[in-house]
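Item description
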Amino acid sequence: MRFQLIRMEKNYAYTIANWHYEDIYAFYDLSQDVEDQQEFLDSNNWEGHYYAVLNHAQELIGYFSFEFQGEAIIVGLGLKPSYTGQGLGTAFVTAGLGFAMQHFHPKKFCLEVATFNQRAIRVYEKVGFKVDHLFMNRTNGGDYEFAYMVYEISEKEWTIGVYNYAR
């Protein structure tokens, strides 16, 4: 499946804000954290940071956020609930990292993921992220363990300035 990242738009943001995940993954519903939802829906935060992801049929299937921290990019992402668990994760994450590599030229990518989400952790590890450390995070009305994961971009990837989409 091909993915196209485009600037976030109001209709996409509000559609994403209404996505609902099943079972333990409901943790990722934006409605679970009012502050996160408000930040996501504030169009002043979108420019250069939030991107909608469309598939080959121009259907909204996900989003990425890129927060700059020195030479690193902190990655946030979400895949439309009906597309989760279908083996698209690796290609989806790789497409987002490739976009960021080509447009922003970071030295590394970082992300945070709840440790109960082993499905996502396996995808991130397959792409090349490694767990740097674990930490507790107060969010969504409770304390949850998170993994802080890092992907160091290789010298070859940095030198040629493109991410290998074919991973």
Notes: The first strand starts at residue 4 and ends at 7. The helical segments are 10-17, 34-41, 89-104, 118-127, 155-160. Residues 89-104 form the longest helix (16 residues). Confidence is low (pLDDT under 50) at residues 160-167.
